[in-house]
Amino acid sequence: MSNNEPAPHLHLLSSFELGWDGLNLIYELEPADEMPETDLEHHFIVIAENDFRASFMFNGSWQEVDYASGDIAIIPATETFPRTLVDREVPLIELFLAPAMLARAAFESVNADKIELVPQLHLCDPLIQHMGLALKQELAAGGADSRLYAESMGTALAVHLLRRYCSFNPEIKNYTGGLCKYQLRQVFNYIEQNLDGNLSLEKLSSAVQISPHYFASLLALPYLVCQTNN
């Protein structure tokens, strides 16, 4: 390996081979090395699993940021990920959210063209951290049904980003209580009747005649409330 080649990144887990739609996850050991400037097609969310220092190149100068376990950085798809130097090997959870997920979550409230995700170089957000850990656990379990779980969590993540980290603050509805018992029975019946099919969020939400966004919000709510209260 020449001095100009980046150090290898060890991917411990990756969802890209499982057909997840809209949201993907890589769990990797980031080496102590320099990463080149990169253009990404997804909204990029990094969750630290240990302490480290990153140096980012902005306008010809290095900016140092110290991260603790659980700290987060958000780089929108519209931004270039800067040249970065990491001071030590560190495990990272990396989430890749398709811009279409954010636009779909905003569809009920505003013109998606007016939504702009604002870069966040360093923040603490327990909800995003719990989402990343839950998705990592789901990926490690290796279940074939993880695609539906990831799609639901991706919708919940998109709504949270709209609420907290967008330049335009849309009026997002608050969903409380989750699905009622009658709706749950309808969903379970649909699943039992279509076990051999490709179960998607859109198909499950149509079984109870509500939008996929509303369905995912109700589906994810009980888990997220439990995690944030623990």
Task: Describe this protein's structure.
By secondary structure, the chain is of the alpha+beta class. The protein has helices spanning 99-106, 126-141, 146-164, 181-193, 201-207, 212-229, and strands at 10-14, 23-30, 34-35, 38-39, 43-48, 52-58, 61-67, 72-75, 80-81, 84-86, 90-97, 120-123. It has one domain (10-229): Jelly Rolls (Sandwich). The protein contains 6 helices and 12 strands. Helix 5 (201-207) packs across helix 6. Residues 221-228 have low confidence and may be disordered.
Strand content: 25-35%
How many distinct domains?
A: 1
Separation of the first and last Cα atoms: 46 Å
Structural class: alpha+beta
Shape: elongated
The helical percent reads 25-40%
Spatial extent as radius of gyration: 19 Å
Instruction: Please count the beta strands (DSSP E, at least 2 residues each).
Output: 12
Encode the helix/strand succession as letters.
EEEEEEEEEEEHEHHHHH
Number of helices: 6
User: How are strands sequenced across the largest beta sheet?
Assistant: 1-2-11-5-8-12
Task: Note the main sheet.
Answer: 6 strands, antiparallel
